[in-house]
Design a protein that fits this description.
5-stranded parallel beta sheet, 12 strands, alpha/beta, 13 helices, 2 domains, Rossmann fold, 34% helix, single chain
Amino acid sequence: MQHTKRILLPQPIEAEAVDLIKKAGYEIVLSPDPKPETVLPLMRGVQAVILRTGIRMTWELMAQADDLWVVSRTGAGVDNVDVQAATEMGILVTSVPGANTVSVVEHTIALMFALMKQIPLMDQAVREDRFDIRFKNIPRDLKKKTLGLVGLGRIGSELAQICYGAFGMAVLGYDPYLPIEVKQRLQDSIRFCEMGELFRESDIISLHIPLLPTTQKIIGARELGWMKKDAFLINTSRGGILDETALIQYLKEGKIAGAGLDVFIQEPLEKENPLKDLSNVILTPHTAALTRECVLRLALEATQSALAVLQGRRTEGMVNPEVLKQPRWKGFPFLSSP
């Protein structure tokens, strides 16, 4: 392969990551904005794309490229990449699944505390001189409550360990895809059960599953109907896994106590989205992994991954490693070897 040494950034990345690219001798192509029509003509002549969340890497965009080898995501999820199309074109897709774990776990715990202690309500009451709200004993303790986790990957597993060890919570887990050896390792702190039991018994339910065709609206009216009336739901994974309309109805009718949401079906939220008018839901703008420290980690690791691929070295987080068997990759023996 003949390198022209160009890496496309549909959106800016942190200066430290830019320095890595420059030190490696690659030219940076920075798009003025992440709109598909702006990025499209920039796809030609680049060997790598370092992709944030502001644009979806579609078949149409990748088809415009003439020498693209890797799309490197600055995050764990690849739902803004047409992985099937990339595979068909022989383009490797990578992600950095571990870099955001601690940040998302901390954000989830923050939502748990805010909901259980009713922080927004308490704050508003003090501002409105309703200090006597303290005598209504509205906040609740986390200790000894039951946490239900749907999805026990890196984030779910880490959250389970913290809540079990630090807060003395009972932890229920549902993950039909979790390898048996991982289940065995976690069984001291997590009791694995079916979805129905988890939803019926949990005081707090936290969702940690990827958005796939098989997980679209996997949590809907039936699952919400299993929840206890005083239970909370938290979603810091992807908005599409949750039936937002059903959730809004349950929150409006007080059939569940509340929710903490960092992700939504449409982002940004529509101006008239009913979630904005509900007092029993806490909303954050998909910021769980956007701490100052995590954004830098994501940019650096995604950049290192892209550079490794272009230099023929193996990298963690290969989403579609089967592309390495295609003829175009024969010049990369170190990358394709196990």
